[in-house]
Amino acid sequence: MSVPTQLTHKGRPVPYIAAWSAEHVELPRLTDVSGALAIKGQRRAAGVLWTPWRWKPGVGEPHYAAVHGPRQRECMRLKLCQVCGRRTVRTDLGWPWLLEDHRGEGRWPEQEVTTHPPTCEECQPVSQIQCRPNRGRFVSVRVGDVAIDGVHGQLYRRAARPVPVGKRVLFTGDARLRWMLGNQIAATLLDVTVVDMHTQAPVSREAVRR
Ligand SMILES: [Zn+2]
């Protein structure tokens, strides 16, 4: 696999999964085919209808808030860094990940469901500074096992002209997946260890320095 170069725009790094203006596709007409959402000429890959995108990273203007579905899914499946697009390195504790800080919530970060792909060690400090609106609010973790079992997208209600009812995460086996236009993989993170972002050594979740 070729190693992508970090794209920049006006001197600022652009994350690998950010969409560029030349990549947006006007949404084709959605229809009901045999009780499932359909786009003419497009197959359902493994039972999911995915939002169509062009693949032209670096062309036009970056849209930091728009996630390019095919690159996000590539990152999740191959454990590529969402910022630089390079393969992340697994240690005894697992793959490197940055998570929003939800320390007040139950078992967090174990079984966290996220649409954020891994972030390599080199990109983590940069992301902590550059990412808006979560600047300075990420925690570094290592993830021993990743279940690729969710789809994030727009759920529709069955009709001759299907009606959008909201963004959702649905998991494998959910019958409503037939009525979802998916864009991103939602992964469930297992065997998670909180680490120091700079040393990558394990720390208690209360002791994380930022
Ligand atoms: Zn990286």
Describe what you observe in this structure:
This protein is mainly beta and 210 residues long. It has one domain. It contains 2 helices and 12 strands, in the order βββββββαββαβββ. Strands 6, 8, 9, 10, 11 and 12 form a 6-stranded mixed sheet that branches. The mean pLDDT is 92. The chain binds zinc ion. The site of zinc ion has 7 residues, from loops.
List keywords for this structure.
single chain, 210 residues, mainly beta, six-stranded mixed sheet, two-stranded antiparallel ribbon, 2 helices, 12 strands, globular, binds zinc ion
Task: Please provide a brief summary of the model.
The protein is mainly beta. The protein has helices at 69-78, 124-130, and strands spanning 8-9, 12-13, 18-20, 30-33, 36-39, 49-50, 62-67, 95-100, 113-114, 138-157, 163-171, 180-194.
Ligand kinds: zinc ion
Describe the sheet with the most strands.
6 strands, mixed
**Low-pLDDT segments:** none
What is the typical, i.e. mean, pLDDT?
Answer: 92
Tally of individual helices: 2
Per DSSP E runs of 2 or more residues, the count of β-strands stands at 12
Give the CA-CA distance, first to last residue: 34 Å
Structural class: mainly beta
Total number of distinct structural domains? 1
Q: What percentage of the residues does DSSP assign to strands (E)?
A: 35-45%
- What is the helix/strand order? EEEEEEEHEEHEEE
Spatial extent as radius of gyration: 18 Å
Shape: globular
Q: Please estimate the helix content.
A: under 10%
